[in-house]
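User: For documentation purposes, I need each entry recorded in a consistent format: the amino acid sequence on its own, followed directly by the corresponding structure tokens. There are two entries in this batch. Please keep commentary to a minimum and don't merge the entries.

Assistant: Recorded as requested. Entry 1:
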Amino acid sequence: MSSTSPNHKLLIYQLTIRLFGNKNKQVKPWGSLKENGTGTFSDVNETALKSLKKFGITHVWTMGVIEHATMEDFSELGIPKDHPAVIKGRAGSPYAIKDYYDVNPFLAENPTHRMAEFEAMVERVHKQKLKLIIDFVPNHVARQYHSDVKPTGVLDLGEGDLSGVAFSPENNFYYLPGEEFIIPEGVHVPVESVQPYHEYPAKATGDDVFSSRPNINHWYETTKLNYGVDYLKNRATHFDPIPNTWFKMRDILLFWASKGVDGFRCDMAEMVPVEFWGWCIPQVKAKYTVDFIAEIYNPAQYHNYIFNGKFDYLYDKVGLYDTLRALMEGRGNVADITRIWQQESGDIDQHMLRFLENHDEQRIASEFFARNPNYAIPAWVVSATMGRGPLMLFFGQEVGEPAADAEGFQTKDGRTTIFDWWAVPQWQKLMNEGKFDGGQLNAEEKQLYDFYAAVNKLCQKSEAVQTGHFYDLQYVNNWGQSPGYDDVHMYSYLRYTENQILLFVTNFHREESRTAEVRIPQHFWILVGLNPEGNYQYKDLLLAKKVKGSFRATESISIQIPANGVFVFEITPQ
């Protein structure tokens, strides 16, 4: 019954630097940098990092580090000005990279020394025994990509391309010869430009749009990178000899790894051929100890990107996230959790990164999702403890940020903007003018924060959660077998090693408590080498620490679990 698996239970904290440190509360839609303000590298300081360390975090994902296109003017620094017609939002998207070899100047107190300030932040993170993750955006770049600080001898993306042909494996971009790029109809440009945007020949757009006329819902602010796949000829591949883009992107990863970065969250990784990843990742790992996380949405490709692409971790969005979201919204059935476990158990469980929020998804507390952040309590426990893989939390989630504003380019849709200069109100309460002590939170918000901290602590300290085996209990607990057990809303399971047994009981019903019997089958006791007729005791480790008792293995455990309730019982022989 022992577990020899390594510990993959990373606790990743995702934060958008320009929002994380912004203390300005008087922000306005479509406001400029000067009007709305921004956070900087210096806001990820010792106080903030100690707070995150105490909260239970192991890895910090600082989003928006690498220089991206923006409507702000930094030409005084020698950075070419971007055309506002091909930028989303006044701040711009962190996923429209403008210079892979630079950091955003607005994130520095002294933009002239911006890279040194980034490196100092990396040192602060490491000083607190934390690790740093940044984004790597491999599929597309800003339409006006240009590196003005690339290392000596490095050719820029597109430099040397044959733009008169639609495809060449030696080109970095895809072209539409004879066609000029057309700005989509309906694009709002709040900043004036003397000249109209000109791109000839037009390049293919980032979301695989091979047309000079993308619409407003496409990634029109980006251009697709060419990894040797001829999309217009049935995706024919040209990987021998190695395409030029492969070398350039590998070298970019090596550049950032040399800065002390500990991991890369790879944006839309499945839009880049798995052959590239399988070639590139081992080369980077041969020189640096780094983790690679893939944003991926096709379960049919999970094994491919883990075992052939060599990724360490994959997003578990089309799976556990979607299942838990339905339950948090008062719909769905916990039987779907069992289904996800059956699909993802075995050789990929430890590779699946679980989350309930990130910058792409709607906030739990928003009017477009669950409305009440407490509805996440059972879902978060399942996300954190069901598997051996990493856990990710988005800043502000732990205090119920509702993303209630229309920020500018980001409309009122329940998401925290990545495109606009803005502030995150609930987060500002926790940040408390830079004290990071939650001093402005009310009692209910502090209680929610304490819940997340308790789950994090459990993940850090529990051997069973980190490396233990999983045992689903739904098959022996239902209305027919276990009196009062609501098998639509209640989900129970065990995590265990030779040293620890934990029983998890959750109630996803948003309004009703349950008085129920929970059974552990004889098979489990025999499996773990314990007496199937013995006496055992239990105590809750998470929220209701006074809940404890004893039971005989041949009998049920009687519980009364509140709405949105969770018990984490440690079971020991009596």
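Entry 2:
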Amino acid sequence: MSPRPLPVVEHSTLTLGPQLGQGGQGTVYQVANKKINEAEGGGWDVAYKEYATAVLPDLDAAALAAQVGLLGELSAEDGRWLCDKTAWPAAVVERHGRACGFLMRAVPDRFRFSFQSLAGTSTGTRRLANLEYLLNDDAYVAGVGLTISERDRLDILTDLATTLARLHRIGITVGDLSPKNLLFTTAPRPECFLIDCDAMRVRGATVLPQAETPDWQVPAGEEKATRASDVHKLALLAIRLFARDQSATDPTALTALSPGLGDLARASLNPDTARRPAPAAWAEQLSAASTTASTAPATAPTAQRTSRRSNAASAGRPGGGSAAGVSHGPAGTQPGVNWSVLNGVAAVVALIVIVVAFVATHSHSGSSSASDDSPQPTFSQDYTSGTSADASDGSADDSGGSGSSSDSGGATTTDPSTTAPSAEDQAFSDVSADDCLSDYYKDAEWSSSTPTTTSCSDTDAYFRVASVEHGTCSSDDMTWYHNNSDYSETNLCLDRNYVTGQCMFAKASGQTLSMYFNAVTPCEAGIPDNYQYTVQLTRVYPGGAPDDACGSDRLWKPGNGAVLCGKGIWKRHGLPDM
């Protein structure tokens, strides 16, 4: 049998709809005039990822073509499975004969949920169910509208471990296996869905150089995107999913649930990659633990929903596992630093681009003579009017608006351009790049409903605005999201602004003091239950400084080249001075 033709689409034939997301590698758009897999109930909606101009020189077009062509090489069973579990590239998109992106299926609706704002301002907007949501305490998880039990967590991990085992057998390693690239559902059964598939390694080749999410890296010097690295990150995910923390590495909570799982986690984090277990061992232990796990879902305290505020939801949850710098002692001792700026659950999940799975079981040409031995995507043009509400699978628009659903029977007809901006809309639109904000994040909310600018040299200038976006900020930014009255967005992408005299909360373990850089606070404020110290900055060196620069004070390196000196000014009763 002759090989099937590689699905290639000319960019000029695409009718692009709303932007769905934007990241460092490119931008994702809804596609209005094409479908994938038309045999399935009229076809699946399509999304298009266009690579940024800056990454095109590093793009391996042959590797992208090989990813798309893989479906034609697999058995029909493996091909259909791959399309159901991942956002595998369905067709190469070319501009004037050169690859510039690819098409894929839009996210199936079962991997979305009705997000509820902790501030009480959102009444069920549809958002992607990203696993980062589950790396937080149960009150937060339930508060945003997720119903999840201990057994659900185990079953989701079981499905992921089983998925990894099968991917490895096919010759695929995930590489950047982290919660931002994983979606989940519990209905009709608990399962996961892998996105950002063009970042995976297929038979040794990758489309772009391998990258890793901060706090989800393999040990220094280890090769990326291998079977062993996938197992290492699976262990981190299991530990953090049950510790309800985004950066934990201690398997204590997992061991309490199942000693066997605790042993697997420790073995999977072994620096000797040859001693790490296979994903199948994880699947077996997880499945066994699931049989006795609780099926009771977490519940949200009623107090979580009493205040009503702006729809400006934060992407960072400083108290829920956001970036921490660790100082091991007084000045003169080089601190070990574990630094990342993770977009904390609430927002990262919500709007970080992600577009999803696809595929089909027919040839590119749609010829009736084509064999269905292996799946190939089929495409139709001018199939829809370009509104996501026409989606046959009922998936909602994920462009950052209100997310209309196909259940309504058609696209919304309201003209957003006629909606006048509210006072809150205006307050967000008045903020510019390089402005500094005196607002801070506390108890899953910002300290005010709208941003307050101040001089960047003021003690309360906690955040500097890196950029103002109408889509998703980069994964390195903390984000203050705002949904405008006309369903557009104004999102403030924020960097920490360090000023002498500022205060932050910190935790202690022995003589190790971990400072949570985004957990800023007025110095006179009380210490939340999940911290032990309030630390005040005594000196700030933006361009770096020698290890003895802080004298008798503590020294931290937050990962942006700066050196911070500080000391504990408040502590819980009975704790030693720090």
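Summary note for entry 2:
The chain has four domains: 8-107+355-408, 149-290, 323-341+500-571, 418-496.
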